[in-house]
């Protein structure tokens, strides 16, 4: 197979990319093998030496303790008493002492002999496990006499190379009255150190040489028996001393022992002895060398094979299909359209093959079409040219629109981010200030700022939602009676404070006559006028804001002209001002803020209200927005339309009856709301009006509380857990609750409101809560309940009711007789039925004591627990008697 240039180039690129990392990895591995081997060996040897040191220390310390314990033996003290030879008990006490020595020798098999030596070096008592005689002297005894230590140990090497341990303990008298204790002798313990012999033979590696040296370099113990008794040079001893101070593995050649370079780890023991563990360096790195060779071999094999394997895989997956595709393309270029690439894997190459086959089929199809239309080619070319020109023009328009839409989107997102973050920053900042500030001087101003920014944020969200509804053609408008004077008064109360903040004059001009009442959507009309008027204030730095109201009787349109002396707009800016997400200029956004939605929404709303919005403007001189709205007056000419003809009619009349300031109510109100924050807010509002509501956390609780208690009005949230407000309202109406139910919800679309009203709600209020709207609704319905209560009071004071009440009082003695008789006879079921009857009738005629006593007795007799039925029956009897006595007292008076 011919090797392509791409294959050679690919091999040139792959080879260094594979070889260089492998070489680096191999070198790094070889470098770390030696280091890790040395560290591992040092760790193993150091732990081994420390374990051996601890083992020897424990071994020696145990015999020191044994010697000390033996010196404190009471038998030994008795033997050393002054009257030993005088009273003739020497033989008995010596035998007892020998028994003690023998017990210690049996307990510790390494003990060869125990000798009691007098202060002058004579043996007073001697015990040997091998029955030897007491030695005449010890080579170290002169050192013992010169030393003041109570405990001493010595290692003495014999001629055969073995080493014995001797532990010496001074014995003093127990006379505490002497200023200086009297020395009575020494205990000399001779030990054959089996543990030291076995420990010195243990090794972490093969061919390890362990040594125990004296301070002058003599080898007392050695894992190589032939090395015992030899001396190492002073230079080597000094090196070992230095290594013991450093506490690490190092390379030293002990020429006194052999010529082998060794890795040595040494520690210094008590008494000036050194424990040394040595390992031949060649042996230590033997495993590391094997690993290094294996690593090097793997690297060499990888360097050779990996590039070839990668090349083969890439060639089979990519190069061969490319060559096949290139050959097919060459044939197509020569005019051979019978080419067909075989099916390939379901990958990118397979997709490329399918696309190539599709392309060849399309070429064949187009060639057939060319053959078909070759006789009228010029017509086809001309029509195709025109189609292409049209398509190009459409494409250019689409590209321009897409670019414009992209710019508008970016600008809108930037504006919305700024507009939303600005009030949120104020809300969060002032809220945090109120939470952490101890000074309450500026709280009202802070709260006003939070409220103002919250309303602004709500307005932004409403604008976005309104635009979405308008574009979806789902925004519905109402046609309800609307008072023009009240409308303009509401607009003035909002715009005039804004004007006064910027020191602008604000004028409102009524061009009489005007219809007092029109039929339109008050909310949407206010939204239009406030939006345009607030824009006028925003874009005016000095001068005035003017609102003219005119009535066109021919077209039955009312016109609101809002003029300002602000920055104005050019003709091009006027053309763009009613488009969504746009403002007159990009600098306007940076300077004045805004989302670019207000005027677009206002124009759409005006059209929905049967009118439109027009604008005229001059740059630098100001603008005039003209809002026209259909009046929707009655078509019947016989109906007279009230008109405003005098200035005295331009003052709005406020309904004082819809204010808590003019009314007082003693009403029980239930609030069904699941959100704790909303619960606190509603309760706070009602408390400011003198009302203390009960709170239900869900619809189920609301139903239960409403059926148990007597509520004059219920405020019902529609979205709650367990049971929603809609289901709770339906259940209350089915249970014959006839009081007013006010729906409180964030879903205030027309269809939603109709659903709430059909379920049994009397009114629907929107969230966030409008304080004035809530006050008006509450006063209106509580006045109705108050009128009903007054009618009931009138009924209770009527002559007919008094006659019925007197007849009931005459029946009370008979009821008293019946209750007493039933109680005495134990006829509890009949008594329960009579109590039920008394509960209802006594409550209706105002005898509350009889009503409560009968109700309690009925509940007890209805249940299973009858422990208190006697007491409750007697309570009912006493209640009737008390009522009769009260009636008699009133009759006498």
Automatic annotation (TrEMBL):
Domain HAMP: 316-368
Record keyword Nucleotide-binding present: yes
Keywords associated with the record: ATP-binding, Cell inner membrane, Cell membrane, Coiled coil, Kinase, Membrane, Nucleotide-binding, Phosphoprotein, Transferase, Transmembrane, Transmembrane helix, Two-component regulatory system
Parts forming coiled coils: 363-408
A GO molecular-function descriptor: ATP binding
Regions crossing the membrane: 12-30, 290-314
All copies of domain Histidine kinase, residue ranges: 415-633
HPt domain segment(s): 797-893
Modified residues (4-aspartylphosphate): 717
Response regulatory domain location: 668-782
Cellular localisation: Cell inner membrane
Residues that bear Phosphohistidine: 836
Reactions it catalyzes: ATP + protein L-histidine = ADP + protein N-phospho-L-histidine
Name this protein carries in UniProt: histidine kinase
Organism encoding this protein: Pseudoalteromonas rhizosphaerae
């Amino acid at each position: 197979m011919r090797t392509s240039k791409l294959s050679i180039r690919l091999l040139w690129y792959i080879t260094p990319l594979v070889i260089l990392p492998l070489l680096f990895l191999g070198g790094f591995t070889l470098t770390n093998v030696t280091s890790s081997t040395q560290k591992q060996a040092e760790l193993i040897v150091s732990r081994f030496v420390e374990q051996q040191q601890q083992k020897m220390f424990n071994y020696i310390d145990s015999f020191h303790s044994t010697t000390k314990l033996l010196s404190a033996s009471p038998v030994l003290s008795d033997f050393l008493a002054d009257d030993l030879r005088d009273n003739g008990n020497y033989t008995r006490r010596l035998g007892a002492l020998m028994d003690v020595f023998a017990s210690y020798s049996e307990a510790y098999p390494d003990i060869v002999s125990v000798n009691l030596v007098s202060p002058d070096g004579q043996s007073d008592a001697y015990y040997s496990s091998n029955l030897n005689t007491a030695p005449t002297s010890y080579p170290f005894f002169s050192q013992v006499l010169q030393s003041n230590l109570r405990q001493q140990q010595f290692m003495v090497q014999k001629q055969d190379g073995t080493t014995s341990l001797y532990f010496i303990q001074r014995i003093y008298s127990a006379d505490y009255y002497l200023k200086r204790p009297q020395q009575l002798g020494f205990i000399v313990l001779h030990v054959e150190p089996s543990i030291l012999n076995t420990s010195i033979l243990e090794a972490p590696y093969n061919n390890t040489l362990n040594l125990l040296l004296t301070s002058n370099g003599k080898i007392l113990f050695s894992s190589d028996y032939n090395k015992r008794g030899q001396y190492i040079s002073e230079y080597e001893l000094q090196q070992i001393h230095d290594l013991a101070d450093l506490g690490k593995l190092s390379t030293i050649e002990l020429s006194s022992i052999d010529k082998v370079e060794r890795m040595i780890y040494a520690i210094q023991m008590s008494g000036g002895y050194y424990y040394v563990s040595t390992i031949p360096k060649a042996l230590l790195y033997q495993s590391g060398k094997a690993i290094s060779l294996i690593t090097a071999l793997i690297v060499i094999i990888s360097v050779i094979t990996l590039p070839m394997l990668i090349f083969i895989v890439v060639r089979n997956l990519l190069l061969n299909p490319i060559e096949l595709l290139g050959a097919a393309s060459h044939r197509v270029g020569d005019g051979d359209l019978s080419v067909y690439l075989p099916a390939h894997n379901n990958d990118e190459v397979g997709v490329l093959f399918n696309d190539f086959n599709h392309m060849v089929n399309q070429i064949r199809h187009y060639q057939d079409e060319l053959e078909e239309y070759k006789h009228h080619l010029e017509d086809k070319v001309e029509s195709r040219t025109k189609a292409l020109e049209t398509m190009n023009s459409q494409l250019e328009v689409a590209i321009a629109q897409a670019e414009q839409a992209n710019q508008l989107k970016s600008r809108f997102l930037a504006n919305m981010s700024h507009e939303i973050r600005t009030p949120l920053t104020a809300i969060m900042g002032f809220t945090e200030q109120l939470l952490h500030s101890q000074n309450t001087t500026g709280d009202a101003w802070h709260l006003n700022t939070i409220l103002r920014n919250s309303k602004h944020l709500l307005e932004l969200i409403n604008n976005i939602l309104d635009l979405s509804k308008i574009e979806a053609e789902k925004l519905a408008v109402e046609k309800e009676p609307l008072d023009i004077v009240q409308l303009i008064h509401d607009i003035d109360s909002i715009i005039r404070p804004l004007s006064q903040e910027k020191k602008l004059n604000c004028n409102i001009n009524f061009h009489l006559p005007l219809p007092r009442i029109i039929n339109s959507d008050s909310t949407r009309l206010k939204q239009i006028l406030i939006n345009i008027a607030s824009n006028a204030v925003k874009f005016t730095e000095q001068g005035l804001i003017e609102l003219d109201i005119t009535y066109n009787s021919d077209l039955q349109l009312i016109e609101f002209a809002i003029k300002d002396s602000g920055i104005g707009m050019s003709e091009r800016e006027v053309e763009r001002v009613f488009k969504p997400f746009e403002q007159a200029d990009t600098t306007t956004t940076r300077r004045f803020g805004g989302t670019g939605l207000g005027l677009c929404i206002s124009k759409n709303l005006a059209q929905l209200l049967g009118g439109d919005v027009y604008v005229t403007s001059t740059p630098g001189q100001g603008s005039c927005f003209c809002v026209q709205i259909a009046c929707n007056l009655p078509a019947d000419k016989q109906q007279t339309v009230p008109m405003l003809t005098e200035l005295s009619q331009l003052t709005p009349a406020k309904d004082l009856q819809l204010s808590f300031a003019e009314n007082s109510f003693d009403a029980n109100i239930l609030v069904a709301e699941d959100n704790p924050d909303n619960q606190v807010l509603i309760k706070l509002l009602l408390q400011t009006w003198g009302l203390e509501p009960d709170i239900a956390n869900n619809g189920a609780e609301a139903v239960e509380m409403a059926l148990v208690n007597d509520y004059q009005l219920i405020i019902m949230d529609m979205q709650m857990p367990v049971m929603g407000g809609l289901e709770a309202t339906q259940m209350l109406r089915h249970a014959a609750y006839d009081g007013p139910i006010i729906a409180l919800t964030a879903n205030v679309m027309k269809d939603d409101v109709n659903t709430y009203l059909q379920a049994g709600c009397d009114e629907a209020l929107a969230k966030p809560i409008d304080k004035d709207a809530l006050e008006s609704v509450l006063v209106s319905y509580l006045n109705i309940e108050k009128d009903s209560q007054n009618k009931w009071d009138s009924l209770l004071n009527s002559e007919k009711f008094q006659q019925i009440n007197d007849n009931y009082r005459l029946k009370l003695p008979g009821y008293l007789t019946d209750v007493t008789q039933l109680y005495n006879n134990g006829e509890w079921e009949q008594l329960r039925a009579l109590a039920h009857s008394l509960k209802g009738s006594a409550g209706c005629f105002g005898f509350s004591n009889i009503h409560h006593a009968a109700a309690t007795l009925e509940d007890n007799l209805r249940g299973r627990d009858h422990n208190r039925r006697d007491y409750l029956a007697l309570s009912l009897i006493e209640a009737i008697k008390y009522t009769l006595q009260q009636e008699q007292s009133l009759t006498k008076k």
